[in-house]
Amino acid sequence: MKRVAILISGGGSNMMALVASMTGDHPARPVLVAANDPAAAGLARAAARGIPTAAVDHRPFGGDRAAFEAALLAPLEAAAPDIVCLAGFMRILTPAFVDRFAGRMLNIHPSLLPRYPGLSTHARALAAGDAEAGCTVHLVTAELDAGPILGQGRVPVLPGDTVASLSERVLAMEHRLYPMVLRRFASGDLRRLDLP
Ligand code: GRF
């Protein structure tokens, strides 16, 4: 049984989708939900599901990323995860941290990478007049939003779409894609998954 730690920063809707999927004959189980913000609403949602949680506020560390990550590593290593899932986690990780989990840390990004790495992905897709948008699950490497792609989910951009309507449609696809990719990855199947 693979042990999965999930890192969040906010509401944790992707985390909840991953947690809900890890049941029955699924080859993985959640062992920790950790946040860089003690007020992250996802922490209470995870705790309500009986999942151990940890919070390491990044703000006292200022710009010292390595110090924040050293603090985060304590509960993370204690959980002995086989797989780490970044799910709405909004901190950029140093190469040293990424290297510790090389090949077994996943992230979901709300665009069809390599288009729109970074922030404001939906606004950029709308501004470009794209006909489609979506989300990408990829292995995390030192370069931001650029690791090997494990899966993508495509959604149409519709006339009159706003950032709110498009992000809602993409988020629903994220909640489908990430659990399916995690199940494949946890079972050792590295085939890329494309939805729909
Ligand atoms: C959302 O914008 C999602 O697209 C991205 O992270 C943000 C928060 O997700 N992956 P969550 O609800 O905290 O999982």
Compact summary:
It is built from six helices and eight strands, in the order E-H-E-H-E-H-E-H-E-H-E-E-H-E. The chain has helices at 13-21, 41-48, 65-78, 95-100, 121-128, 163-186; strands spanning 2-8, 28-35, 53-55, 83-86, 105-109, 132-139, 149-156, 193-195. Strand 1, helix 1 and strand 2 form a beta-alpha-beta unit.
Shape: globular
Low-confidence stretches: none
CATH fold name of one domain: Rossmann fold
CATH architecture of one domain: 3-Layer(aba) Sandwich
What is the string of helix and strand elements? Answer: EHEHEHEHEHEEHE
Tell me roughly what share of residues is in helical segments.
Answer: 25-40%
- Assess the beta-strand content as a share of residues: 15-25%
Report on the structure:
It is a single chain. By secondary structure, the protein is α/β, with parallel strands linked by helices. It has a domain at 2-109 and 136-149 and 178-188: 3-Layer(aba) Sandwich (Rossmann fold), CATH 3.40.50.170. Helix content is 35%, strand content 23%. The chain contains six helices and eight strands; from the N terminus they run βαβαβαβαβαββαβ. The protein has an eight-stranded mixed β-sheet, with helices on both faces. Helix 2 links the parallel strand 2 and strand 3 (53-55). Helix 1 (13-21) packs parallel to helix 6. It is globular and about 50 Å long. 5-O-phosphono-beta-D-ribofuranosylamine binds at residues 8, 10-15, 87-88, 108, 110, 171, 174.
Which descriptors apply to this entry?
alpha/beta, 196 residues, 6 helices
